[in-house]
């Protein structure tokens, strides 16, 4: 069977997109998902996203990591909003369901997507790291030289340690400034470094806000694949009105035999 797909990327975080409103794709076939995401034998992507009908919202987003596991994905969510606009499902605003619940998003004429994240009501702060869940779990380590860090080796050592080896965690290596940070991320499910991670960017920005005692604002984030922004407000230990902002672009479309 041939199936039509689209390829989208958000600051280098890339995704295979499939319009599954007519249930043309078997989402229980993990092997097919893995093969589509394979960069040598398939289309190649950090994850696969299905867009499906939903009665009370604009659409349902189903996200798979490259290994076939499911999770919430910030950049994937921004890309699926751009895909939904292309399909004519939405215009400028979207209300949709993802793995971690409902989300609101806006897309402007330049293709920049602003995604509202869920409130973060607690963060784990230790001497050598933050641990923050922004829809996906993130371990955040501040380093002097992000570029010199062996992300795959150091990230895997944390992701597979005694605490995280069962459920897994994403691992972020960051360098903080006043209201700006540089980041590289090891993603579980991909089990390698990705060029950008939306939930990781968000978690790292909240870590910066805590470190610098910021009550509100917009933090600029330099990921390997491009620049993102995170807006937020803070009341005590609760972060609210969190927005992940950045580009989401179509790369190409095609057909593939499954």
Would you kindly provide a written description of the structure presented here, covering whatever features stand out?
The chain has 258 residues and is an alpha+beta fold. It has two domains: 2-117 and 248-257, Diaminopimelate Epimerase, Chain A, domain 1, CATH 3.10.310; 124-244, Diaminopimelate Epimerase, Chain A, domain 1. The protein is 17% helix and 44% strand. The protein has helices at residues 30-37, 74-86, 151-159, 198-211, and strands at 2-10, 13-19, 47-52, 59-65, 93-98, 101-107, 112-116, 124-125, 130-133, 137-142, 170-176, 180-187, 192-194, 216-223, 226-235, 238-247, 249-257. The protein has a 17-stranded mixed beta sheet that branches. Helix 2 (74-86) links the parallel strand 4 and strand 5. The longest helix is centred in the C-terminal third of the chain and has 14 residues, at 198-211. It starts with a strand and ends with a strand.
Give a summary of the structure in a few sentences.
The protein has 258 residues and is an alpha+beta fold. 17% of the residues lie in helices and 44% in strands.
Map the helices and strands:
Elements: E1 2-10, E2 13-19, H1 30-37, E3 47-52, E4 59-65, H2 74-86, E5 93-98, E6 101-107, E7 112-116, E8 124-125, E9 130-133, E10 137-142, H3 151-159, E11 170-176, E12 180-187, E13 192-194, H4 198-211, E14 216-223, E15 226-235, E16 238-247, E17 249-257
Parallel strand pairs: 2-3, 4-5, 10-11, 12-14
Antiparallel strand pairs: 1-2, 1-17, 3-4, 5-6, 6-7, 7-16, 8-9, 9-10, 11-12, 12-13, 14-15, 15-16
């Amino acid at each position: 069977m041939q199936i039509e797909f689209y390829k989208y990327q958000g600051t280098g975080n890339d995704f295979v997109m499939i319009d599954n409103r007519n249930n043309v794709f078997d989402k229980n076939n993990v092997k097919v998902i893995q093969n589509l995401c394979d960069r040598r034998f398939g289309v190649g992507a950090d994850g696969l996203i299905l867009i499906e009908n939903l009665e009370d919202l604009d659409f349902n987003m189903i996200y798979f990591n490259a290994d076939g596991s499911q999770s919430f994905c910030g950049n994937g969510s921004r890309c699926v909003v751009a895909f939904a606009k292309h399909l004519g499902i939405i215009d400028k605003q979207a209300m949709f369901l993802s793995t971690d619940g409902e989300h609101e998003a806006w897309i402007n004429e330049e293709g920049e997507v602003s995604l509202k994240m869920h409130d973060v009501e607690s963060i784990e702060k230790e001497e050598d790291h933050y641990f923050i869940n922004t829809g996906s779990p993130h371990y955040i380590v501040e380093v002097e030289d992000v570029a010199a860090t062996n992300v795959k080796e150091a990230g895997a050592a944390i992701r597979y340690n005694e605490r995280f080896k069962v459920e897994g965690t994403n691992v972020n290596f960051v360098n903080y400034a006043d209201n700006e940070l540089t980041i590289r991320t090891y993603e579980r499910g991909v089990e390698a470094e990705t060029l950008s991670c939306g939930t990781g960017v968000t978690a790292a920005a909240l870590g910066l806000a805590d470190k610098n005692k910021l009550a509100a604002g917009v933090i600029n984030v330099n990921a390997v694949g491009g620049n993102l922004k995170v807006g937020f407000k803070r009341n005590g230990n609760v972060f609210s009105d969190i927005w992940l902002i950045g580009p989401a672009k179509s790369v190409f479309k095609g057909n593939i035999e499954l």
